[in-house]
Amino acid sequence: MSPSPAQALIGFGEVRHTRLKPAVNAFNYPTYFLMLPLRSLHQNGNGALTRNRRAALSFFDRDHGEGGDDCLAWVDALLAREGITDAAGEVWLHTYPRVFGHTFKPVSFWYCHTAAGALRAIVVEVNNTFGERHCYLLDHPRYGQELQAVKVFHVSPFCTLDGFYRFRFMRANTEGIEKTVARIDYDDASGPLLQTSVAGTLQVLSPATLRKALWRYPAMTLGVVARIHWQAFKLWRKRVPFVSKPQTPEVFVTR
């Protein structure tokens, strides 16, 4: 008997962010996000997920990658170009939806598995507020393992490009309760600078959980942008040095 196809999930949890220097600035706020099994959705339909059409809460393929109509085909082509040809299993995309047509996705995570179900690669897709996008490809990752990537893409006007990211990802099911954590810390030349994470408890995406998300956080994606600018204002008030925007990386994917 073949296993049941994976279902689209929605996570309810929290975003945390701490800046350690030259001035301490910390915040956390409630959030929700999508966790989408793209191959299963491609084969079995999207269920309760509204995809590529308008709705109060929806997902559009063109919000990812190079803006095409099939984001799964895009990530498969990206992996193939990078010499990863054995990620034919499920691709789970952890991302923010569109809410009433609005979206901003500071970071999305693509968990790419082999046909046997082993984690093969993670693509960390980063967007900045200048409308630019970059991907960090993590090869042969493991859940719970610390992974590193040299920082090459400008995100915050209060951080340089010096240093590197430290990633750690976890996904676990304990007594039927499934949780996920994605942590990104940033170290510059003098040590740890930023500590960030997004974590949540996963539930099946259904009309009921969609209503729960919209009732609790009706302006979630607009709130993401508003909080980014509010925290930038607080850093400016604390006299954290402003960094001019550097050139965009010549390559779209680094590893």
Provide a quick synopsis of the model.
With 255 residues, this protein is α+β, with helices and mostly antiparallel strands. 18% of the residues lie in helices and 39% in strands.
Tell me the number of structural domains: 1
**pLDDT averaged residue by residue:** 95
**Helix percent band:** 10-25%
Shape descriptor: globular
State the secondary-structure class: alpha+beta
Strand content: 35-45%
What's the number of helices? 4
H/E series, N to C?
EEHEHEEEEEEEEEHHE
Largest sheet: 11 strands, mixed
Side by side, the strands of the main sheet go 9-10-11-12-1-2-4-6-7-8-13
**Overall number of strands:** 13
Distance between the termini: 39 Å
What would you report as the Rg, rounded to the nearest angstrom?
Answer: 18 Å
Low-confidence stretches: none
Molecular structure report:
- By secondary structure, this protein is of the alpha+beta class.
- The protein has one domain.
- Helices cover 18% and strands 39% of the residues.
- It has an eleven-stranded mixed sheet. Strands 3-5 form a two-stranded antiparallel sheet.
- β6 and β7 form a beta hairpin.
- The longest helix has 18 residues.
- It is globular and about 55 Å long.
- It starts with 8 loop residues before the first strand and ends with a strand.
